Fold:
Amino acid sequence: MARKDIIRNLQQDTPFDLLVIGGGATGSGIALDAASRGIRTALIEKYDFSEGTSSRSTKLVHGGVRYLEMAIKRLDRTQYNLVKDGLYERGVLLKNAPHLAGRLPLVTPLYSWMEVPYIFAGLKLYDILAGKMGIGRSRIVSRKEALERFPMLKAEGLKAGVLYYDGQFNDARMAVTLITTALRQGAVTANHVEAISLLKEKGRIAGAVVRDNISKQEFTVRARGVINATGPFADSIRRMDEPEAAPILKASSGIHIVLDKRFAPPATGLMIPKTEDGRVLFILPWQGHALIGTTDEPADIVDHPRPKDEEVAYLLRHVRQYFNLEIGPQDIKSTWSGLRPLLDDPQAVDTARLARDHIIQVSKSGLLTMAGGKWTTYRKMAQDAVDHAVKTFALAPEKNCHTDHLPLIGASGFEEKGDLKLSSDFALDADIASHLHRAYGSEALKVAELAQKGLGKRLHPEHPVIEAEVVYVSRHEQAERVSDVLVRRTTLALLDKEAARNAVERTVELMAEELGWDEARCRDERKLCIQLLETAI
Structure:
């Protein structure tokens, strides 16, 4: 659907049942849940879908090994329930989006025999809590097998390892897939549309005054109920409603670095259970590269946070401790920082101890805020939010929640080895076929058909992203800016910032032709994208 049609649909006279503010994991999940129940739903996002925290995660679908340890040590039921819910939802996500998510084996290296029973017992409990949704049994592996799976590990002093399984996914594409699935269920979704004030009638919230940040047009979106799903920025929307509202969130920054593929094996991740300050660190294979993360430091809530030099140094220092390789800043292909929305607890010593669980709050004027949580439990959070909205706003859904067995776009007809057929039928290089298969699932056929029409060239010679994707995501996935394509729809910038920079010009040309940009718009898009790549990525 063309953007002008989306904006027109937002301005319809008949109020929506729900207006969702925020297009990250939480908001996109809520929009899908509500629309799939037959609730008339609109969603707006200030930037692009998942431009903030939701595209900057560690790419793991997990119950939370660290949270389990906290639950046991502190007899903390909140953390325990968070792990149990997370392990169930991990199974649901892997089932509903098999093209975007899969099982990942991880090895925890042990350099002391004293660690073996403690770590192994904890991970076995992790398996038990997963129950029928388990995706593999933990086991102790020998020193030899640990080194075979992760050959770069420092062998000196290595005693053994523990192998366990979690899920891994493409978070940025997961968010846009939720959005496109919500669209097919009848939702109206718009990125680059910002809520600038809340509309009130007789003391009750009845929608929002919004601004299209592309056209600069301002207009009103009316709705029976408004859900604040803006992640770390939830308190700022709450203050639009009640200027004196006390904050309910704190934020921590989590940065990640991406290294060249020579630093990661193709199929096994590494989980370091305790760094110098007691945090968990992951070294993971991700789209042919090595993903290292993450930090957990108190942070200010700002748009597009920048990774700090000391945080990058922290990650590199720990990688050197476990890798038998020389690694320095020159080996980094990309970095990014994300803000975690954490429920505020004045008694917590640091942000690592704040719960990742979620809460729902309704103000006197009827603003429903969903706060906290994490990617893995997005679906349960959405279900809870919509259930609450139905009662709060007296809605009449046509169906009950059924997102636990609702395949996302690209999942229906997805075959695990479908990339082989894609490669042979369309004469695509194996890495391109694999990339399209995993990014688009059964929809990859449409991208491949575009490639056959003269759009099969790579955007960068070292990466499998092709020109056909730029046209496809501009046409079908609401990509409105160059950065929407290079950072989130294809994730090229998250893997290799310099490669993305080199692809800017061709991406502008393709989007200009597809979306009808004039030279002034092309000039602005080049500038905006390069600025983003130089600062936030």
